[in-house]
Design goal:
The complex is a heterotrimer of chains A (328), B (325) and C (304).
Chain A lengths: L10 H37 L1 H5 L5 H10 L14 H32 L2 H16 L2 H20 L2 H7 L10 H25 L3 H9 L4 H12 L1 H17 L2 H6 L23 H8 L6 H34 L5
Helix pairs in contact in A: 1-14, 4-8, 4-11, 5-8, 6-8, 8-11, 9-10, 11-14, 13-14
Chain B lengths: L30 H35 L2 H5 L15 H32 L3 H16 L2 H12 L21 H26 L2 H9 L4 H12 L1 H17 L2 H6 L13 H7 L5 H8 L8 H31 L1
Helix pairs in contact in B: 1-13, 3-6, 3-9, 3-12, 4-6, 5-6, 6-9, 9-13, 12-13
Chain C lengths: L1 H7 L47 E12 L2 E12 L3 E5 L6 H8 L9 E9 L2 E2 L5 H7 E4 L10 H12 L6 H14 L3 H4 L12 H13 L5 E5 L7 H14 L4 E5 L3 H7 L2 E6 L2 E7 H6 L4 H7 L5
Parallel strand pairs in C: 3-8, 3-9, 6-7, 7-8
Antiparallel strand pairs in C: 1-2, 1-4, 4-5, 9-10
Helix pairs in contact in C: 4-5, 4-7, 5-7, 7-8
Classes of the chains: A mainly alpha (328), B mainly alpha (325), C alpha/beta (304).
Chain lengths: 328, 325, 304
């Protein structure tokens, strides 16, 4: 990679040359945040931060109106209330990460400790493969298999009639979105946790066994505890992926900027939503209209801020573990 | 802890009749441990079942709808499924994009990782770079795509795509998408390289320094060769992410069914032009996009899966080959 | 960054340097350090007084252990008494570690290991006991100190917590933890802050912590697999002193490749060679007047 030069690099030269490249990467990131913030500013200024995050009116209609306003819209054209999108994002992300994390932890322990050797040899590559499957394929399965199943078999015609003035229940909605998202983020969490559990020095588990701990206790109180940094990292990664999942969710979540109402009972899980990222993908064609452009960048800014908060949260969560001497 | 003296065991039976040793029996565990054990098994079985279902289903559908001529025919727009042609252009688009993305990502990532682990001064900069890459890793691909659009629509970067007659830079091309794809693959290569470097014990470096080699020489001759497998793994992971990414493609590649080059320079023209990849094709052909061609979607998805599978196997094979050396 | 520190500065010792200093001041240990009398060959009266001796705790009967086809232990029989320290000596690969690990059934975790013969704990075949129950009565300390990545308190309390049906609260555990740390000779050095991470102790302290952890539940037998081989001479001396104390309450079996240590610490000595038990007897007799030719060759020169 470093071609043979007549004079080999000194360490100081190497240090700043390599550092320059690394700083280039950093610069790109800073640019990214800067651009997004700048482009998002008009809509935030026109709406006010707090009320922009609030609810009021149909997001879809507001976006549609923006498209019509052309190249030089007045301030009023920037009107948007993004709460339905935010709510959809929080709902899908939180539920799928929580469910996925629990599932991944127990599956990982199963793989590392309890699975018969032949099963383990098959499952581990399979999980890695699943983690690499593109999200559009999960979306495809969701929209071609899961959604029709839910729409035709799980939602009764009576239920559809009861809400047909407000929304169409066709199977895409909260339930399918959460299922697809969970299936999407679980493999990578399993892979990370399995790697972390396998990396625990066997001296620790052997020591625990030698003290009279049974198999479950040895793995839970020592290995899992020592693997906590990795578990936090897995959770943060999964959360970030869930937050940013645009394409698969735009296929299965119903594509309507609608806030499902828990008061509706069971119908709640069938109602359509559209998380922030999916909204961005669906409106990107209209990005030439400045009002729409600014709104999309505002969504992007929100997503960026969320993933920033996530990263910081993950770092903070790992601090006490660092103190114990765990490699974080 | 006083031991309860039990009656001495009977004479030990001959070796071939030896009773099995009492192992860690589930019946002696606390109920919470038993519950946890069952949960682990349940999750494991569910995992296997879901994995099997997905793989089998995609396989069946793919074989059902994929015929070899699809792979070599160019797609054409059309209303009926049997007139929409094949998926050659999307395949080529995927390949081109992956190459561009990895070619940019790997040198940047390895350099950054080497600098961070081996030098890392000044410390605030090191921390900033590390955090920055984590930020990129956590950034949704749609945000990166939008950012790419913002960058590549700047007039200064007009040569990288095409300029519409009204003066607006289109900003969508293979180069634009490839550049953003490199950002997406960067954290994986960086992370893998860093893990590899950090897992090399200090005494290897110390031995080299004690012999009088400079740090950069040590890196080049000893450390980098040792992390080749890690870099390959990271690159494969990055490639997997690039191949599977749809958002960047949808936003930055112009979504034309066929590869449309810009200008007359042979390769550069294609790079400046627009096209589609397997992922955007699947998206477009599904009920969520405009086309209503679920069969073509399955076929393209199957090809996509095969590519991803091949990448995974290649990584495993490479990894195993390095271990046996 | 911790990675940076670890890699860049090779002159720091292997204690984790990047962590902040402890919040509370560590009380200096002012108890007089027992001067190790035995830095070189123990010609002088380096032998400590012998252990009191007691009832037989474990008995090995015609034990053979094979890894696949290769025999590691061949037909070994010996008794282990409370109140004594049994030193297992022999050249590398003679099977002493395998024998030790068989005593608490750790060899079962190695694939391909088969056994013949039996080991009795208080008259009961250890294979008939629940493995976890066995290991609560026969504790082990390993060659490399392996404290868990938790606080000192949690390390010592680990065995107690694991062995109780109901998880005991911290207030119940404190006296037991303090007692174990005292018996292990570590109390004065760590009493100031028991919540300190265990991995930040020095090597010798970590090993004593592992000993404290092993004896916290008052096992009957303590197995030690070359506990001092990874430590410096001062820590070694401290631990040998400790063994002298511990053997009064329990049976200690210590594997060591250091003949001088075996002479200092052991009451009974078993010499093994290539899996066979060549000689077994009182330490005095084995070292000064060995019966077998092979033993004589092995211990010759160690004591001039």
């Amino acid at each position: 990679m470093f071609a043979r030069r007549r004079e080999p690099w000194t360490d100081r030269q190497a240090s700043w040359r390599l550092g320059a490249v690394a700083s280039l990467v950093l610069l790109t990131i800073v640019l990214m945040v800067g651009f997004v913030a700048v482009r998002a500013w008009p809509t935030l200024q026109a709406n006010g931060w707090v009320s922009w995050l609030g609810s009021g009116g149909s997001v879809d209609r507001q976006l549609g109106d923006m498209i019509k306003t052309g190249q030089d819209p007045p301030t009023a054209a920037y009107h948007l209330r993004a709460w339905p999108l935010i709510y959809g994002t929080i709902l899908t992300t939180a539920v799928s990460v929580l469910v996925g994390l629990a599932f991944s932890l127990f599956s990982a322990i199963f793989i590392v400790e309890f699975a018969p050797a032949r099963v383990r040899a098959v499952v581990v590559p399979a999980v890695r493969l699943l983690a690499a499957v593109p999200s559009v394929i999960y979306g495809l399965i969701g929209i071609l298999v899961l959604a029709p199943f839910v729409g035709n078999h799980l939602i009764s015609p009576g239920r559809k009639d009861s809400v047909q003035n407000v929304v169409q229940l066709d199977g895409t909605g909260v339930l399918v979105a959460i299922v697809v998202l969970t299936v999407m983020i679980t493999p990578i969490m399993i892979a990370i946790v399995v790697d972390a559990l396998r990396a625990i020095p066997p001296a620790w588990t052997e020591g625990a066994s030698a003290l009279g701990a049974n198999r479950w206790e040895a793995i839970w109180t020592v290995s899992v505890r020592a693997a906590r940094p990795a578990i936090v990292a897995a959770a943060v990664l999964a959360c970030a992926r869930a937050l940013g999942e645009a394409v698969a969710l735009s296929m299965v979540s119903g594509s309507r900027g609608f806030s499902p109402n828990p008061v509706d009972g069971i119908t709640y899980i069938f109602e359509p939503i559209r998380p922030l990222a999916a909204s961005m993908v669906e409106n990107v064609d209209a990005i030439n209209a400045p009002a729409v452009k600014s709104s999309i960048y505002a969504f992007a800014l929100l997503l960026l801020l969320s993933s920033l908060v996530l990263s910081i949260g993950g770092y903070v969560a790992k601090l006490p573990m660092r103190r114990q001497g765990l490699r974080v | 802890m006083a031991a309860t003296i039990e009656a001495p065991a009977p004479v030990a039976p001959a070796p071939h009749q030896r009773p099995a040793p009492r192992g860690d029996r589930l019946s002696s565990w606390k109920w919470s441990h038993r519950l946890a054990f069952l949960t682990c098994w349940a999750c494991g079985i569910a995992l296997c079942a879901v994995t099997l279902a997905i793989v089998v289903y995609m396989g069946v559908r793919g074989i059902q709808y994929l015929n070899p001529e699809l792979l070599f025919t160019r797609p054409t727009p059309g209303l009926q499924q049997h007139t929409t042609g094949g998926i050659l252009d999307p395949i080529m688009g995927t390949v081109i994009l992956t190459i561009i993305g990895i070619a940019i990502a790997v040198p940047l990532a390895v350099t950054s990782a080497v600098w961070l682990v081996e030098y890392g001064k000044p410390a605030p900069l090191a921390r900033a770079v590390e955090s920055g890459i984590e930020v990129v890793a956590g950034t949704p691909d749609i945000v990166i795509a939008i950012f790419g659009l913002a960058i590549f629509q700047l007039p200064i970067l007009a040569p990288l795509s095409f300029t519409a007659s009204g003066g607006g830079v289109f900003g969508r091309s293979f180069l634009a998408a490839g550049a953003m794809m490199s950002l997406i693959a960067l954290p994986m290569v960086f992370g893998a390289t860093r893990e590899g470097l950090m897992s090399i014990p200090t005494h290897v470096r110390e031995a080299s320094w004690a012999l009088g080699k400079t740090r950069i020489c040590t890196i080049r001759t000893i450390l980098l060769p040792q992390v080749r497998a890690n870099v390959a793994t990271g690159a494969a992971l990055g490639m997997g992410r690039i191949v599977g990414d749809t958002a960047v493609v949808v936003v930055l590649l112009g979504a034309t069914l066929q590869l449309e080059p810009q200008g007359d320079v042979p390769i550069l023209g294609n790079l400046r032009g627009t096209g589609s990849t397997l992922t955007s094709y699947v998206y477009g052909a599904s009920p969520a996009g405009e086309g209503n061609a679920p069969q073509k979607a399955y076929a393209a998805a199957f090809v996509l899966l095969l590519i991803v599978l091949t990448l995974n196997f290649a990584v495993d094979y490479l990894g195993r080959r390095k271990e046996t050396r | 960054m911790s990675a940076h520190d670890r890699v860049v500065d090779p002159f720091l010792d292997d204690a984790v340097p990047s962590l902040p200093p402890p919040r509370r001041r560590v009380r200096l240990d002012r108890t007089p350090v027992p001067v190790p009398e035995t830095q070189d060959a123990p010609r002088r009266s380096a032998v400590r007084e012998r252990g009191p001796g007691g009832p037989e705790r474990m008995r090995v009967e015609r034990l053979s252990v094979l890894y696949g086809e290769k025999p590691a232990v061949k037909d070994v029989s010996l008794p282990i008494h409370a109140g004594e320290a049994l030193a297992l000596i022999g050249p590398s690969g003679c099977g002493k570690t395998t024998l030790l690990r068989t005593l608490n059934r750790l060899t079962e975790t190695t694939a391909g290991a088969t056994r013949e013969g039996r080991v009795l704990l208080d008259g009961v075949d250890v294979e008939q006991l629940e493995v976890t129950a066995l290991r609560r009565r026969v504790a082990m300390v390993f060659q490399q100190p392996n404290p868990f990545p938790m606080s000192i308190f949690d390390n010592v309390a680990y065995a107690i917590r694991v062995q109780n049906k109901k998880r005991p609260g911290r207030r119940e555990l404190e006296p037991q933890v303090a007692d174990a740390l005292r018996r292990a000779g570590l109390w004065d050095e760590v009493a100031g802050d028991l919540d300190r991470p265990a991995l930040r102790l020095s090597g010798g302290q970590q090993q004593r912590l592992c000993i404290a952890r092993a004896i916290a539940t008052r096992p009957e037998v303590l197995l030690m697999d070359e506990p001092c081989s990874a430590l410096d001479p001062r820590s070694t001396a401290v631990i040998e002193e400790l063994i002298g104390e511990l053997r009064r309450e329990l049976a200690v079996v210590i594997v060591t490749h250091n003949l001088a240590q075996a002479h200092r610490v052991g009451d009974k000595v078993a010499f093994m060679y290539l899996g066979d038990l060549v000689e077994f007897g009182d330490a005095q007799q084995v070292f000064e007047d060995p019966r077998a030719e092979r033993t004589r060759d092995y211990v010759a020169g160690a004591f001039g």
